[in-house]
Input
Amino acid sequence: MTSLPGLAAASSWNRRGTLSLVALSIALATLLLLTFERVRLDVRENFASAVSGTDLVVGARTGPVQLMLYAVFRLGGATHTIRMDSVRAVAQHRAVAWVVPLALGDTHRGFPVLGTTRAYFDHFRYGERQPLALAQGTPFSGDLDGLYGAVLGAEVAQRLQYRLGERIVLAHGSGSLPGSEHADKPFTVVGILARTGTPVDRTVHISLQALEAIHLDWAGGVPMKGLAIPAEQARKFDLEPKQVTAALVGLKGRAAVFNVQRFVNEFEGEPLMAVLPGVALDELWSVVGVGEALLLALSGLVALVSLAGLVATVLAGLNERRRELAVLRAVGAGPRHVMLLLAAEGLLVTLTGVALGALAHLATVVLAGPWVQAQYGVTLNLAAPSASQWQLLAGVLAAGVLASLVPGLRAYRLSLADGLAPRS
Output
């Protein structure tokens, strides 16, 4: 008698038209499961790598999640600013190596504008402590001669098709109100950053002095009536910032992080708060990462539907195969062999579908990865399957085996006489 795997393969090939549709549906389910899991892992990695190499984020006393949202992800707005004198006091702490002040509030065509210093380009890190790199041009000078220089994130430059030397106009706040543009003080694009896959890509960077200059003749969020300070005349004013939104802090040694955090939290000059980026990002992910479970559940539902199709297909053809199975019984196959034969056929179909789905997943990552990176700033890594992906594959195979046992048990109960003389 032919070996059971060979017999199962021959039987499946004989019914390849029907079973190929089942295999394709399992392949689709596998593709969705693996791709959703890869996207989930890589989105989380990109999320966690939005800022690295920064030991503390300092801002007004609100909440860790809110502080990270506007200081790192440029979302929402700060309810309170902090004085620049307080930032300087933190910078003078003996354990502090560097401080980068951040000022937010303005926009350019929907993209946030960040006022900062040249130290931002020297100390800001993302991913595995990767420094910012310029794809074109140079950072803004940070002095009065290059006061109106702007450095664009990669997504800003790509979406708006800006090049070096382009003249751009910033807007106060969201820019949605009439007359909110700082049209009298245009900026020149002096640099374009390389893509990072972080909120940096969606940001327009200018100096703190430039941010002060464009607001010299503004008060209460609106231009002052009867007062208009030309762009060149603004250089004659004191442009040192008095307030900022937040500050990134780097320490000389990680051992002092809690000491400096306590110093900031107990600062007497004004109510401040210092948060550890890693801890705050984990808390933030627990809020915004709820959708990942829903995506995984939906793809799992697709897998169940596919396996249900496998059971239905085998059961539907079982009545037509009763004589075939009876012949097998007549040549010496026991009920157990018949059950194992159908289970082996189901396992073979499931294996084929899983293999096709895994290959389709790899092709999706390779082909769609650059587009996802360009459009959404998320890097899809072509890597060996993660532990969770192996678990998903094992789960699909186990479910396929269990699903195959249903028609196998039905065939097990068919008697030899029933197979040779089926009821009409």
Remarks:
- The chain is about 50% helix and 15% strand.
- The two ends are 31 Å apart (CA to CA).
- The chain has a mean pLDDT of 81.
- The longest strand covers residues 96-102.
